[in-house]
Sequence to fold (97 residues):
Amino acid sequence: MATLRLTLACGDYDRTRPLRDGRVAVEGVERTAIALPWLPAEVEETRELIGTDLWPDGVARNRSVIETVAQYAVEQGWIPERPLVEALFAASTLREP
Fold:
């Protein structure tokens, strides 16, 4: 069986503290803690640039990004014309909760 390496970054929160300090072990998982002294500054700079919601859900919240990617595809000759966002997704995914 192939080995799958995953990385999980977790902050110092009540629910993750036992994982971070080794009090709770996950079967079959090696725990490696890496302290990066510049990480807090990097996180803060990232939040200032792109906000706190790194992966917004839903078509509506991502419409401008989807339209931009479609426009780039047209400009680079990958597709002949920019499709409507509604044509790219199933109707059920267009309804916001």
Remarks:
- The CA atoms of residues 4 and 29 lie 10 Å apart.
- The mean pLDDT is 83.
- The chain has five helices and no strands.
